[in-house]
Amino acid sequence: xxxxxxxxxxxxxxxxxxxxxxxxxxxxxxxxxxxxxxxxxxxxxxxxxxxxxxxxxxxxxxxxxxxxxxxxxxxxxxxxxxxxxxxxxxxxxxxxxxxxxxxxxxxxxxxxxxxxxxxxxxxxxxxxxxxxxxxxxxxxxxxxxxxxxxxxxxxxxx
Length: 158
Known about the structure:
- With 158 residues, the chain is an alpha/beta fold.
- The protein has a single domain (2-148), classed as Cobalt-precorrin-4 Transmethylase, domain 1, CATH 3.40.1010.
- Helix content is 41%, strand content 18%.
- It is built from six helices and six strands.
- It has helices at residues 13-22, 44-53, 68-77, 80-91, 95-107, 123-132; strands spanning 2-7, 27-30, 57-60, 110-114, 138-143, 146-148.
- Strands 3-2-4-1-5-6 form a six-stranded mixed sheet, sandwiched between helices.
- Strand 2, helix 2 (44-53) and strand 3 (57-60) form a beta-alpha-beta unit.
- Helix 3 runs antiparallel to helix 4.
- 28% of the residues are buried.
């Protein structure tokens, strides 16, 4: 089973949808707590409509988004290690959302979406690290026209 992730930073909505289509994504899972964006086409309703017009289902999972307090502290101190520790503690309390994500990913070709282009500094990599621990799931972090493996992991490249 493979779960993909992508950040929309630096992409317009057409390039973003084209990237999803190029990787045969059937379900886009938005893991932003608040799916709002200043970038045209990436707020919840517009993103859902663009995805659905392309034949891609859209699912918003706010429980897997980073809580405001943790984001706010990270924006002010820039301490990724502290952010990871706090978000991972939060994530361990999201059993229902994680189970839903895992079930959805077993039935569909899924891709998690958030803003940050670099998955190494985005909470979506922490979500996938947790899901991949049992070795049953392969993770592919997509960037426009490429796949980037997580640090320390070998990932399948089609």
